[in-house]
Amino acid sequence: MWIDEIEKAFASASSDSADGGLSQRMFGTLLSWMQDHRAPIFLIATANNLAQLPPELMRKGRFDEIFFVDLPGPKEREAIFCVHLKKRNRDKAKFDLPRLTAASEGLSGAEIEQAVISGMYAAFAEKSECTRAHPFGHPRHPAAFGGHARTRRATAKLGQGRCVMAD
């Protein structure tokens, strides 16, 4: 069983919340189930901030291991660009991958994928192919996803590494 971003589901379980105790009851049910279930179930949970989790959940025996997965490095980011370009039938040779890799520092794989998709939408809006001439912007800055003129303005406003023209 997979629980994504578990801290968001149970962040208010250890404090007074305005949900009438619902999160505390859900949390109690999960803890009881984790302790009492007999079926061979593999439970995996993701969390962005372990400090927000109630201490009862972090007690030894609840989860066997805790793994840290960092943001992708330069080689991984380039590979992620290649995967998402190939997935969309685009030739990676038509893109400045070293520049895109450098500009995408601090982004997750999902954010890089959304940048590729946004570049394709920009190309589609211009009725052209997504190539070096189209922007891959930072997903947290929607202004970076317009046409050429809008992207150049965004590049000037957002500064280094957050919006790039792959020309």
Q: What would you say this structure looks like, in words?
A:
Helix content is 44%, strand content 6%. The chain is mainly α and 167 residues long. The termini are far apart. The model is unreliable at 137-167 (pLDDT under 50).
How would you briefly describe this protein structure?
44% of the residues lie in helices and 6% in strands. With 167 residues, it is mainly alpha-helical.
Tell me the fraction of residues in β-strands, as a range.
5-15%
State the major sheet: 2 strands, parallel
Please give the count of helices.
7
Q: Spell the H/E element sequence.
A: EHHEHHHHEHE
The Cα radius of gyration reads 21 Å
Low-pLDDT parts are 137-167
Can you tell me the overall shape? Answer: elongated
Distance between the termini: 45 Å
Give the beta-strand count. 4
Query: What proportion of the residues is helical, as a percent range?
Result: 40-55%
Please list the strands of the largest sheet in the order they lie side by side: 1-2
- Provide the residue-averaged pLDDT: 76
Structural class: mainly alpha
Give a quick set of tags describing it.
167 residues; mainly alpha; two-stranded antiparallel sheet; disordered C terminus
Topology:
Layout: E1 2-3, H1 6-10, H2 22-36, E2 44-45, H3 55-58, H4 74-87, H5 97-103, H6 109-125, E3 135-137, H7 148-158, E4 163-165
